[in-house]
Design brief:
six-stranded parallel beta sheet, about 300 residues, single chain
Length: about 300
Amino acid sequence: MLTGVRIVFLGGDARQLEVIRKCVEMDATVSVAGFDKWEAPCPGASLEQMSVTLLGNADVLVLPTVGCDDEGNISALFSSEPLKLLEEHVAALPAHCTVYTGMAKNYLRRLCTKHELKLIELLGRDDVAIYNSIPTAEGALVMAIQNTDFTIHGSRSMVLGIGRTGFTMARSLQGLGAKVKVGVRRQEHYARAEEMGWEPFMTDNLVAHVAESDLIFNTIPDMIITAQVLSRIPKHCLIVDLASAPGGCDFRYAEKRGIKALLAPGLPGIVAPRSAGIIMANALVQSISDGTLNRGNV
């Protein structure tokens, strides 16, 4: 339980609504700013205006999945007014306050460091990333189905990267009957891919493996699908780039060649916001509970 813990939420999308509900259920004292357009507010959550006073009473500050941009602007889907995190807001947070977000940009990291506040990026947790790989893979499959005229079953599908998202992506394709090739950068990943029944290859030899691809799913956040690689890819092939923006594909050259390439970061919040919100909520509650136990009552 989070009884007595004062949590302030600033902005967010549909995922954040699930996180707010969970914290209320756990008996936290919850205040939210940037939610004046929330049509059915959660009973127990207090709708507030963003202010130094509000933040000055917070034990926990929760920002959206991408906390804020490098000018401090906070994404707030349910707000009628822009929401911006200023240094005066961060300075007002109590010294014991912990700041949570999915992933932080330099602006937020710099302010938390300057004011000696603990910053936790939930998307950096292995459990969150693994759970999030499920709606990511499902969303990528939907995009593939919507943008091709052939079945995934029997297709020659390639996954680049066998991290947490890549592994789930390859396994999902395999389950649908695709012929799966996996590009890896480490020998242990090569062995794991082979053990799973996929056809592995090293990504430094990517250009030699793409000529017969029907679908390519990239999870590597480096420029890997270069113009040279694209010159060997058949024009009917669909590329779904799941890496963080700007992705790992030369989209300009893909368009020039007539190859459809789609950048698709953040799929969990798009295709399954409720499930993605529950994943974040469970991780947040566990982390707050662990921190509360470690330092006693806040």
